[in-house]
Amino acid sequence: MSNQPPTGGVQATDERVLIAAAQGGDTQAFAELAVRHQHEVFTLALRLVANRELAAEVAQESLIKAWRALPRFRGEAAFATWLHRITVNTAWTLRHRARRQQHEPIDAAYELADRDERRQPERVAEIGELRSRLRVALAKLPASLRSVVVMKDVYGWSHAEVADALGISVTAAKVRLHRAHRRLQEDLKQEVA
Questions:
Q1: How far from chain centre, in Å, is Cα 134?
Q2: Rounded to the nearest 5°, which phi and psi values hold at 178?
Q3: Which of 109, 144, 169 is the last residue of a domain?
Q4: Within this chain, do residues 17 and 80 fall inside the same structural domain, yes or no?
Q5: Which of 63, 82, 85, 117 has its CA 20 to 30 A from that of 163?
Q6: Best CA proximity match to 176, nearest among 139, 137, 150
Q7: Angstrom distance (rounded) from CA 83 to CA 20
Q8: Alpha carbons within 13 A on the beta-carbon side of 82
Q9: 103 with 159, same domain?
Protein backbone atom coordinates (compact mmCIF):
# COMPACT_ATOMS: atom_id res chain seq x y z
CA MET A 1 0.00 0.00 0.00
CA SER A 2 1.38 3.36 -1.02
CA ASN A 3 1.92 6.28 1.33
CA GLN A 4 1.43 8.70 -1.54
CA PRO A 5 -1.29 11.32 -1.21
CA PRO A 6 -4.60 10.19 -2.63
CA THR A 7 -5.24 11.42 -6.14
CA GLY A 8 -8.96 10.91 -6.40
CA GLY A 9 -11.89 8.59 -6.01
CA VAL A 10 -12.65 6.77 -2.79
CA GLN A 11 -9.24 7.43 -1.22
CA ALA A 12 -9.54 11.20 -1.65
CA THR A 13 -13.09 11.18 -0.32
CA ASP A 14 -11.98 9.00 2.58
CA GLU A 15 -9.13 11.41 3.37
CA ARG A 16 -11.47 14.41 3.26
CA VAL A 17 -13.79 12.60 5.67
CA LEU A 18 -10.87 11.87 7.99
CA ILE A 19 -9.70 15.49 7.83
CA ALA A 20 -13.18 16.80 8.63
CA ALA A 21 -13.52 14.37 11.54
CA ALA A 22 -10.05 15.26 12.85
CA GLN A 23 -10.86 18.97 12.59
CA GLY A 24 -13.87 18.20 14.77
CA GLY A 25 -11.58 16.75 17.44
CA ASP A 26 -11.62 13.05 16.46
CA THR A 27 -8.17 11.85 17.54
CA GLN A 28 -8.65 8.45 15.86
CA ALA A 29 -9.25 10.14 12.50
CA PHE A 30 -6.08 12.17 12.92
CA ALA A 31 -4.17 9.05 13.98
CA GLU A 32 -5.23 7.43 10.69
CA LEU A 33 -4.06 10.48 8.74
CA ALA A 34 -0.74 10.39 10.61
CA VAL A 35 -0.25 6.69 9.81
CA ARG A 36 -0.97 7.33 6.13
CA HIS A 37 1.58 10.14 5.89
CA GLN A 38 4.24 9.26 8.48
CA HIS A 39 6.63 7.62 6.00
CA GLU A 40 6.65 10.56 3.58
CA VAL A 41 7.02 13.03 6.47
CA PHE A 42 9.99 11.09 7.85
CA THR A 43 11.57 10.73 4.40
CA LEU A 44 11.29 14.45 3.72
CA ALA A 45 12.69 15.25 7.17
CA LEU A 46 15.59 12.86 6.65
CA ARG A 47 16.47 14.42 3.32
CA LEU A 48 16.35 17.89 4.84
CA VAL A 49 18.35 17.28 8.02
CA ALA A 50 20.47 14.27 6.91
CA ASN A 51 20.38 12.67 10.36
CA ARG A 52 18.03 9.80 11.30
CA GLU A 53 17.57 10.76 14.95
CA LEU A 54 16.88 14.39 14.16
CA ALA A 55 14.60 13.35 11.27
CA ALA A 56 12.54 11.20 13.65
CA GLU A 57 12.24 14.17 15.99
CA VAL A 58 11.26 16.45 13.09
CA ALA A 59 8.62 13.97 11.90
CA GLN A 60 7.11 13.61 15.36
CA GLU A 61 7.09 17.34 16.00
CA SER A 62 5.60 17.97 12.54
CA LEU A 63 2.68 15.67 13.23
CA ILE A 64 2.09 17.32 16.61
CA LYS A 65 2.12 20.75 14.94
CA ALA A 66 -0.24 19.47 12.25
CA TRP A 67 -2.70 18.27 14.91
CA ARG A 68 -2.61 21.67 16.61
CA ALA A 69 -2.95 23.57 13.31
CA LEU A 70 -5.57 21.27 11.78
CA PRO A 71 -8.53 23.53 12.64
CA ARG A 72 -6.91 26.18 10.41
CA PHE A 73 -6.40 23.78 7.46
CA ARG A 74 -8.65 25.13 4.69
CA GLY A 75 -7.95 22.54 2.01
CA GLU A 76 -6.55 25.08 -0.47
CA ALA A 77 -3.60 22.72 -0.96
CA ALA A 78 -3.56 18.95 -0.68
CA PHE A 79 -3.25 17.68 2.88
CA ALA A 80 0.12 16.09 1.99
CA THR A 81 1.44 19.41 0.65
CA TRP A 82 0.27 21.23 3.77
CA LEU A 83 1.95 18.58 5.93
CA HIS A 84 5.17 18.85 3.89
CA ARG A 85 5.28 22.60 4.51
CA ILE A 86 4.92 22.04 8.24
CA THR A 87 7.72 19.46 8.03
CA VAL A 88 10.03 21.85 6.17
CA ASN A 89 9.47 24.59 8.74
CA THR A 90 9.92 22.16 11.64
CA ALA A 91 13.12 20.80 10.09
CA TRP A 92 14.55 24.30 9.85
CA THR A 93 13.69 25.06 13.47
CA LEU A 94 14.96 21.80 14.96
CA ARG A 95 18.07 21.74 12.77
CA HIS A 96 19.07 25.19 14.00
CA ARG A 97 18.38 24.17 17.57
CA ALA A 98 20.44 20.98 17.19
CA ARG A 99 23.26 22.90 15.52
CA ARG A 100 23.45 25.25 18.49
CA GLN A 101 23.62 22.31 20.88
CA GLN A 102 26.20 20.27 18.97
CA HIS A 103 27.58 19.61 15.55
CA GLU A 104 26.46 16.18 14.37
CA PRO A 105 28.02 14.15 11.55
CA ILE A 106 25.98 13.63 8.40
CA ASP A 107 24.23 10.25 8.33
CA ALA A 108 23.38 8.38 5.16
CA ALA A 109 20.19 9.95 3.84
CA TYR A 110 19.37 7.92 0.78
CA GLU A 111 18.43 4.32 0.21
CA LEU A 112 20.11 1.98 -2.29
CA ALA A 113 19.07 1.41 -5.88
CA ASP A 114 15.59 0.21 -6.78
CA ARG A 115 14.74 -3.46 -7.52
CA ASP A 116 15.72 -3.44 -11.18
CA GLU A 117 19.14 -2.01 -10.44
CA ARG A 118 19.77 -4.63 -7.73
CA ARG A 119 19.74 -7.33 -10.39
CA GLN A 120 22.92 -5.88 -11.92
CA PRO A 121 25.78 -5.82 -9.38
CA GLU A 122 27.99 -3.53 -11.51
CA ARG A 123 25.17 -1.04 -11.90
CA VAL A 124 24.43 -1.17 -8.18
CA ALA A 125 28.08 -0.39 -7.43
CA GLU A 126 28.11 2.54 -9.88
CA ILE A 127 24.87 3.97 -8.56
CA GLY A 128 25.96 3.43 -4.96
CA GLU A 129 29.21 5.31 -5.62
CA LEU A 130 27.41 8.14 -7.41
CA ARG A 131 24.81 8.43 -4.65
CA SER A 132 27.54 8.45 -2.04
CA ARG A 133 29.39 11.23 -3.85
CA LEU A 134 26.16 13.15 -4.34
CA ARG A 135 25.20 12.70 -0.67
CA VAL A 136 28.59 14.07 0.43
CA ALA A 137 28.32 17.01 -1.99
CA LEU A 138 24.75 17.70 -0.88
CA ALA A 139 25.80 17.58 2.79
CA LYS A 140 28.41 20.27 2.10
CA LEU A 141 25.75 22.70 0.93
CA PRO A 142 24.38 25.21 3.41
CA ALA A 143 20.93 24.20 4.67
CA SER A 144 19.28 27.02 2.70
CA LEU A 145 20.57 25.60 -0.59
CA ARG A 146 20.17 21.93 0.33
CA SER A 147 16.51 22.46 1.26
CA VAL A 148 15.72 23.95 -2.14
CA VAL A 149 17.40 21.02 -3.93
CA VAL A 150 15.49 18.46 -1.87
CA MET A 151 12.12 20.15 -2.34
CA LYS A 152 12.55 20.88 -6.05
CA ASP A 153 14.66 18.01 -7.38
CA VAL A 154 13.68 15.18 -5.05
CA TYR A 155 10.04 16.01 -4.35
CA GLY A 156 9.28 17.83 -7.59
CA TRP A 157 7.79 20.92 -5.96
CA SER A 158 7.27 23.96 -8.16
CA HIS A 159 9.39 27.06 -7.60
CA ALA A 160 6.31 28.75 -6.14
CA GLU A 161 5.76 25.91 -3.64
CA VAL A 162 9.42 26.00 -2.60
CA ALA A 163 9.28 29.78 -2.21
CA ASP A 164 6.08 29.55 -0.16
CA ALA A 165 7.48 26.84 2.12
CA LEU A 166 10.66 28.79 2.79
CA GLY A 167 9.05 32.22 2.98
CA ILE A 168 11.12 33.62 0.10
CA SER A 169 10.32 34.96 -3.35
CA VAL A 170 10.09 32.71 -6.39
CA THR A 171 13.12 34.48 -7.82
CA ALA A 172 15.11 33.76 -4.66
CA ALA A 173 14.08 30.09 -4.85
CA LYS A 174 15.31 29.91 -8.46
CA VAL A 175 18.57 31.64 -7.58
CA ARG A 176 19.19 29.30 -4.65
CA LEU A 177 18.48 26.26 -6.82
CA HIS A 178 20.87 27.51 -9.50
CA ARG A 179 23.61 28.18 -6.92
CA ALA A 180 23.07 24.76 -5.35
CA HIS A 181 23.29 22.99 -8.72
CA ARG A 182 26.45 24.90 -9.60
CA ARG A 183 28.09 23.98 -6.27
CA LEU A 184 27.07 20.34 -6.62
CA GLN A 185 28.54 20.20 -10.12
CA GLU A 186 31.79 21.78 -8.92
CA ASP A 187 32.07 19.36 -5.99
CA LEU A 188 31.39 16.32 -8.17
CA LYS A 189 33.89 17.48 -10.82
CA GLN A 190 36.58 17.98 -8.17
CA GLU A 191 36.08 14.45 -6.85
CA VAL A 192 36.48 12.95 -10.33
CA ALA A 193 39.61 15.00 -11.11
A1: 17
A2: -60, -45
A3: 109
A4: yes
A5: 63
A6: 150
A7: 15
A8: 18
A9: no
